[in-house]
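Cross-posting from the modeling subforum.

Setting up a comparison between two proteins and wanted a second pair of eyes on the formatting. Protein 1 (sequence, then structure tokens):
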Amino acid sequence: MFNERLSDIPEPPSRQYSNNDDNNNNNNNENQNNGKSKIKSFLKTHVLIPFQEEPAIWVAMFSIFFSTFLLLILLMGGSKSIYLSRFTFEEPIKYITKKNEITFTLYGYCIDDQCSVPSMLHSFDQMPSSSEISSSNNNKKRLDVPDVVEDTTTGVTDTVTDTTTGVTDTVTDTTTEVTDTVTDTAKDIIDKAPQLLEGLKDSLDSFTPKIPSVNISGFISLPYLFAMLLNMIALFLLYFDIFTPAILIILISTILNLLGLIFNLLLFVWVFELIALMPGIGDHVTGPGIHMEAWSFLFLTIATITLIGKFGKNIISVTCKCVSRGIRNIKDKISKRNEKDDDEKEMVEAV
């Protein structure tokens, strides 16, 4: 009886469902393993084995991919974050205008977070205007500064004098000298700030680069856009083993990237060096945009050299055959014309 009662007692829930849980865990593990195996087989079939068979082609494809990725970041982030050059204002200009820097990008310029209207045909003859640099309450700020400094330094002197009364005259003299130094320094900054601001505004309003960039401003961004599109086409052609057109396209893309890089480097000579000499301009920083352009050109150069080294002989032979066929066709046309002329002459003589 006792054994029968024990057999009638139901199992705990954990025991009732333990087999189902084990089955579910096994199924999940199998699904994960199947997913991993599919990914591994796909990478092995479409990447590893082709790379082992044709390493030069895949080196070129990876180089083109990295170049395309850099150009995409350059074009999409060129409005503010991926800049070409940045100029910070000196401290007096920062205090008066409450502005910190001018940033030049592919599509225009920014004063702090306020940017010009983005344009792929931006002309670097256009500088920020004096009204963009200054603000409506500059005079009030400038006139209030001396009073604030004098009131502050007077309060410091009175406080220190009251605190040090009865101690020594040396402490009083020292605090007086420190206060006078602070006051003189503040007044020097205040006196220089309006002159610096006026000089900066005049320089921006009358700015002219060494060489006008109005007619060639499109070279700063359009070559990178065309190069990125050509890179995508070349990747598609290389993946399907269409090599000769892909090599020609990559060669054109490399030339476009080089033209854009040269033009941007010339901007430092034509424009940015002159801005660095303006009054009120402090530090000058070269932005990440230039570095991305250089790295993109380097990757495209690697791809071009690799592909030409791999298929250069075939390209030369195909080119020679095309040229020889063209020359033969030209010779045949010339000979046919000469034969017609001879026939016409014979007919004229016969008549």
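Protein 2 (same layout):
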Amino acid sequence: MGSLFEGNETARNAYSRLLPLEYQNPLYIRVLGQMIIQAPSQEGFTYIVASINDCTNADDIVALGELHLNHFVQYFKPESKPSRTPSTHPSQPLFEIIQQTITHLLNVAPTDHSRAKKLALIRDNYRCMFSGAVDDKYLREVPRFADEVQQGNVAVKITQCCHILPQKISLRRDTETRRQEVARIWAILHMYGGIQPHELNGTGIHRLSNILTLEVGLHFCFDNLQIWLEPTGIENQYSIARREEYYSPELPAVVTFATSTQYPLPDPRYLALHAACARIIKLSGAAEYVEKILRDAEEVKALSEDKSSSQLPCSLLPTELVTA
């Protein structure tokens, strides 16, 4: 372990409990280890360290790793029918208390996606925030964009409204199962990301500080944690990081966000949580596991529409303990 977490005996104790278990359940344990190392906030660091130290034995630690790996499975998973109610981890009383509290806050209908896109386009000068490409719709409406394109200074692309923290946390709360599912997501956003539930609940999910204007392909890569943003130390400036070097190599190394409007730029805290999730997926080796789960889920999608989840092959149903 060397000097890792030097001076913080609580963190060193948590990390040292993981080391003997790595060969027993490498994926689950590496996810926990990376969650400590990559924590996006002091709250997140304290949360995951305490969760590990609260485990009474090795089996509890492995279960905790499995629980959090399923956060990432659910992060990627497209919206579908409400899933079965998951069990909880025995060492998570605080998590459960926060989840129950948040459940009562989830009765506000989400606001308009279309308006968020329009306002973000105005803020971002009708361009992709990563590539600088002009939105194709507004090329015909803003003469100076046409001049730039003719001079070969800018590309033209279809852009979309990309939520930094996923829109799914605000969708479909019409059933108790769905409300509980969203509450579990929010418990993790709060405890690991340091994000307060009121910020993005209901109408807040479309707040401009949670929105990027991105090309269609970059939107997909960002949602799937294939690309993310790392702060450079300069306000609103970020370097573009990738899970693999071949993801969108044409992008600039650094992007700087700016606007001439009164609309807020993306919140660094939301970008930090997104980046932490992406690094955990990459550095723990969980990316292939998550992608396999999703491929398997696609293969049984037609079956799942016709039959109850209890009739599906167990090997194709990830244990959805907690979502994130």
